[in-house]
Design brief:
With about 475 residues, the chain is mainly α.
Length: about 475
């Protein structure tokens, strides 16, 4: 079937959603009908910039200097490299949404098969709907606590409630919320970043107790920055699938990638500056301590708002990934119901993570990259091998299996973690014997999984779709 002959269904008049903002988005992960398509690529700039305007982004830069032992400029270089890599893949994946009108974890079925896709979809449901949701809820709660002095547990409940309201209504309200949050968050964080950078000491020595910074620290920071930016990759087409099929792919890719890149680099560089200015804690107070009182309060408010902006995407896409497992729920608002469930679980997880948030976040950033990189290697090679063909029917076929995908991803992830992981919980043989190599888990996982998938598909003669 050629690309131009692809059929996209028309919608059921009884479930018309269109551009309505206050309506609850119906259905689950079905292809978006042609007469429901709307929006423009420009909306992706704020949809992806607003969620990064929060303290979790700043914390990546803090860790580069404080935990990974880099100088300011070394941290900046690692941040740019890692973020750019994650944003390139994000743009590519975002461009896949308009053609098929499908969310990212349903598109993933071509590389993994219907059942095999449970591996990445299940992992993304956990890391997005629960993991990232908990991480960002914690930063928002700590900011609200610092601003109002109300108990952190109550602050957490307030932040989670706000997030769930937006995620419950779905796609249109998510985009609208990010649009109106964008100018507020941008104005506050740009001013705050300029002030912090003006107080920084870029020439300050690294936090390495007299030892020079290592290549390992640089690579770990690259991995952390990549993990943060690429953490959005499994959601990419979730927010482009309502665009019309003829929307220019390059515009989609550039707007989505730029939204992530600019916001991440700005705040992560500011985070690195925080440490050179004398702050050594991974919490919102370390950032606002360098600001005038009134800007500090506005920034705490922005941190809280940014956490909400991030988590409405996390819980929304977590619910989409859960539904991509193929579960049939007897509800017209199945996605909305699952979003509420994930929010409740994420609240419980976040309540246990309020203590020791800095170390937990450092580990979480790297673990995210451990599974996303092998998944990326498989889906990118699969789409390259299927170029020029429609895949919509294949994604809906429950009989379709492709064991090459889950096997390549599993082998790539297991081998790379076993040999290269550099975590507080597990130090692999290679970084243990050669500390200067840092953490190459994501890079090895991506390359190994991509190569294995290509070899298996080519050897089996299944390098093009059968339908």
């Amino acid at each position: 079937m050629s690309v131009t002959s692809q059929a996209v269904p028309l919608s059921d008049p009884t479930r018309h959603y269109g551009e309505r903002i206050a309506a609850i988005e119906p259905g689950g992960v079905e292809p978006i009908p042609l007469d429901e398509r709307h929006g423009s690529p420009l909306s992706l700039v704020w949809t992806w910039a607003s969620p990064n305007m929060e303290f979790a982004t700043v914390a990546v830069g803090i860790l580069g200097v404080l935990a990974f032992g880099l100088t300011f400029w070394q941290s900046v270089a690692a941040i740019v490299v890692g973020t750019l890599l994650g944003c390139i893949t994000h743009g590519v994946l975002s461009a896949w949404g308009p053609r098929e009108g499908l969310c990212q974890m349903v598109l993933s079925r071509t590389a993994f098969g219907y059942l095999g896709n449970h591996l990445p979809a299940g992992l993304n449901a956990l890391t997005a709907g629960i993991g990232w949701f908990a991480v960002n809820s914690i930063s928002g709660a700590l900011a609200l606590h610092a601003l109002t002095k109300i108990p952190t547990e109550l602050s957490l409940a307030v932040v989670v409630a706000a997030q769930l309201v937006v995620a419950f209504f779905g796609h249109n309200l998510v985009h609208t919320f990010e649009r109106y949050a964008f100018p507020v968050l941008s104005a506050i964080f740009v001013v705050a970043a300029i002030i912090v950078l003006s107080k920084a000491h870029p020439g300050a020595p690294a936090f390495t107790k007299g030892e020079p910074p290592t290549l390992g620290g640089f690579l770990i920071t690259v991995g952390a920055a990549f993990g943060y930016a690429a953490g959005w990759n499994p959601y990419a087409s979730d927010y482009t699938r309502y665009l019309r099929p003829d929307t220019p792919r390059l515009s989609v890719a550039l707007c989505a990638g730029a939204g992530v890149f600019v916001s991440c680099v700005l705040l992560e560089v500011a985070g690195s500056a925080v440490v050179t200015a004398g702050q050594t804690a991974v919490d919102p107070g370390s950032f606002t301590a360098l600001l005038p009182a009134w800007i500090g309060k506005l920034t705490l408010l922005a941190v809280c708002l940014g956490a909400v902006a991030a988590n409405v995407l996390n819980v929304y896409s977590g619910a989409m990934s859960f539904l991509a497992l193929g579960l049939r729920l007897p509800l017209r608002q199945a996605r909305a119901a699952v979003a509420m469930l994930f929010g409740a679980i994420g609240f419980i997880v976040a309540s246990f993570g309020l203590k020791n948030a800095g170390q937990n976040y450092e580990d979480f950033l790297l673990i995210i990259a451990y599974w996303i990189a092998p998944w990326l290697g498989v889906v990118l090679v699969d789409r390259f091998m299927r170029r020029g063909h429609s895949i919509t029917a294949l994604t809906q076929d429950k009989r379709f299996q492709n064991l090459a995908g889950p096997v390549a991803m599993a082998i790539g992830a297991i081998v790379s973690v076993w040999l290269f992981s550099n975590q507080t919980k597990y130090l692999a043989p290679i970084p243990k014997a050669y500390p200067k190599v840092g953490d190459l888990t994501a890079e090895v996982g991506f390359g190994l999984s991509a190569a294995l998938y290509f070899i298996v598909r080519t050897a089996s003669g299944k390098n093009i779709p059968s339908r």
